[in-house]
Amino acid sequence: MPRPRVHDLDRLLDTAERLVAEDGAVSVRSLASAAGVSNGAIYHAFGSIAALLGRVWLRAATDFLDLQSELADAAVSPEDAVVAAAAAPAVFAERRPHAARMLLTVDKDQLLGPGLPTELADALFALDKRVVALLVRLSRAMWDRRDAVAVGVMTTCVVDLPTAFFRRELDTSADHRDRLAAAVRAVLAVPLRPKG
């Protein structure tokens, strides 16, 4: 019969998320100290530091993509949907500041490194596919196109510009969001070059 779990896994993930956001990394020792648990309890719960970090990233990225999709779906026009998707980091930062800082400032590949369990690697890959699906969906709604040119411009609007705006300073003010929205609308105003 397995031993009963004595530690709240979400609390451990929250603590790890905070440490990664603040320091760019986390060790079992630093997490154990910050969470007030033993190293063994962490290994018992997650198996390895790679699995723990994979779970931290997967949870944050899934929540972010869920929010980004909700914001885009609630918009009244295709252009507004793109602006809403671009603003998702600011909205997410208000709800989950440590998760947003981690996603925006920490290099996922450097954080996760080798040793990530296959099921977590597969789940993270599935998230990448969700991002592409959102970009394609927004491109089709905006221009009725899903080619590389359209998706590339959409990537500029929904990924590149928000990353540039929020990576340096996670400023969620209305003024900062208005500037981002203006930049996104300016990019969308330039006609796409023809396919081919």
Shape: elongated
Q: Quick one: how many beta strands?
A: 0
Reading the helices and strands in chain order gives HHHHHHHHHH
Proportion of residues in helical segments: over 70%
Low-confidence stretches: 1-6
Cα-atom Rg, whole angstroms?
19 Å
Q: Average pLDDT, to the nearest integer?
A: 90
Query: Largest beta sheet, briefly?
Result: none
Distance between the termini: 63 Å
Q: Tally the helices: what do you get?
A: 10
What structural category do the secondary elements indicate? mainly alpha
Strand content: under 5%
InterPro entries: Homeodomain-like_sf (IPR009057), HTH_TetR (IPR001647)
DNA-binding region: 27-46
Organism: Amycolatopsis tucumanensis
Domain HTH tetR-type: 6-64
In short:
By secondary structure, the chain is an all-alpha fold. The chain has ten helices and no strands.
Summarize the structure in words.
With 196 residues, this protein is mainly alpha-helical. 77% of the residues lie in helices and 0% in strands. It is built from 10 helices and no strands. The protein has helices spanning 9-23, 28-35, 39-46, 49-74, 78-95, 97-105, 108-112, 118-143, 148-167, 174-189. Helix 1 (9-23) packs across helix 2 and helix 1 crosses helix 4. The longest helix has 26 residues, at 49-74. It starts with 8 loop residues before the first helix and ends in a 7-residue tail after the last helix. The model is unreliable at 1-6 (pLDDT under 50). This is TetR/AcrR family transcriptional regulator. Keywords: DNA-binding, Transcription, Transcription regulation. It comes from Amycolatopsis tucumanensis. Pfam families: TetR_N. Residues 6-64 form the HTH tetR-type domain.
